[in-house]
Amino acid sequence: MIQSPALQVVDLCKNFGALRVTQEVSFHLPVGHRRALIGPNGAGKTSLIHQITGVLRPSSGTVSLEGTNIVRHSIQQRVRQGLVRTFQINSLFPDLTVIDNVRLAALAARGLHRSFGLTVDHRSLIAVEIERLLSTLGLVELGTVKVSHLAYGKRRLVEIALALALKPKVLLLDEPAAGLSRQEISVLVRVLRALPKHIAVLIVEHDMELVFEYAESISVLVQGRLLRTGTVDEVRSDREVRDVYLGRRHV
Ligand SMILES: Nc1ncnc2c1ncn2[C@@H]1O[C@H](COP(=O)(O)OP(=O)(O)OP(=O)(O)O)[C@@H](O)[C@H]1O
Ligand SMILES: [Mg+2]
Prior knowledge:
This protein is of the alpha/beta class and 251 residues long. It folds into 2 domains: 1-82 and 168-251, Rossmann fold (3-Layer(aba) Sandwich), CATH 3.40.50.300; 91-165, no CATH class. Helices cover 35% and strands 24% of the residues. The chain contains 9 helices and 10 strands. The chain has helices at residues 45-53, 75-80, 98-108, 120-136, 152-165, 182-193, 208-214, 232-236, 239-244, and strands spanning 7-16, 19-29, 34-38, 60-65, 68-69, 83-85, 170-174, 200-204, 217-222, 225-231. A 6-stranded mixed beta sheet has the order 6-7-8-3-9-10. Strands 2-1-4-5 form a 4-stranded antiparallel beta sheet, with helices on one face. Strand 9 (217-222) and strand 10 (225-231) form a beta hairpin. The termini are far apart. Residues 16, 19, 21, 39, 41-47 line the site of adenosine-5'-triphosphate.
């Protein structure tokens, strides 16, 4: 039996008035595949992510998760089905500790809102899971620190911890390296590399060092259209891609 792609987008279009922000975009991500989405500012990358996650309703086209068209599903339904994007910083609870933030996501992944009433076994299972996540992200020592006291780079790692606690099948990251130091970016790359193999990743990023190091393939979006999809080497050496994007970035 042929396995359905983890994520499939077919003929997606989105218009804001006369602005065609997404134009007949089609691509698929096999299970466990790591794809970068690159392109100039204003190309429509974030708008595309918003349509995949359900923040924006496309004008036409379909988004399928494991073969099921989810275009009419709510954001929450999509998350429950395994389509998760990293949280925005302002969606973290600043007055709660790192552990408590991650716990809320781990509970949400089980359709729960609080640990009250859970069995001891269930609680310790969740505690082990949180411990593992914090360890993967190098956040163990910061577990009891309030999020509001964390430096920016650490908060971004907490966002990823929350996303992972939701047990994604497809993880969408929109510029996770923005505002991070080189050292924090290398932690981020290590974390992304250590993700469970079955998770498909779509990462929007302007940091080409990260993209070339991490991605298995790259799609290039220009003015709402996919210009190219290929391996890192193919896209990197493509003359048109260099002309419209890479060549302007001194890489
Ligand atoms: N809600 C909206 N209403 C109207 N136009 C919008 C809306 N959201 C985005 N746009 C426009 O859509 C275009 C694509 O924006 P988008 O943010 O998706 O680009 P991007 O590729 O993510 O850019 P960047 O690399 O700067 O993050 C831009 O021209 C933007 O002004
Ligand atoms: Mg964007």
